[in-house]
Amino acid sequence: MIEKEKFHVLNYVKKEEYTASMDGMRYMLRKKETEQGACLEAIIWPEPYCYAKTEEDKKQRREFPFSAEGVMEAADWLNEQYSDQKPLWEISRKAIF
Fold it and tell me: Is the separation of the CB atoms in 11 and 71 below 8 Å?
């Protein structure tokens, strides 16, 4: 699970995509420009492949405000998705390709 008090990635995401994994669940946070301005896009997908090699239909996305509060909302969503879809992450972690 993501420890929100240690999850300070906003300055990094301002310039680069932030990727990580959590026991079978991979995720990315990135800045996304929209007509309304910048937002924080969170994307999750199952292991074993990287973002570029994973089929689009296996990715799940959500947008948040591009702010420190948005990062905390994204962390909550990531933790929630990890808990709610734990069987998927366990299966993907054990997959051998």
Answer: no
Amino acid at position 26, single letter: R
Summarised one tens digit per residue, pLDDT across range 66-78 is: 999 999 999 999 9
For 13-29, what is each residue's pLDDT tens digit? 999 999 999 999 999 99
What are the φ and ψ backbone dihedral angles of 35, each rounded to 5 degrees? -65, -30
Among 61, 64, 58, smallest CA distance to 88 is for 58
DSSP calls for 26-57? EEEEEEEEETTEEEEEEEEEESSS-TTTS-GG
Q: Is 66 exposed, middle or buried (0-12, 13-18, 19+ CB in 10 A)?
A: buried
DSSP states of 54-73: S-GGG-EEEEEESSHHHHHH
15 DSSP assignment:
T
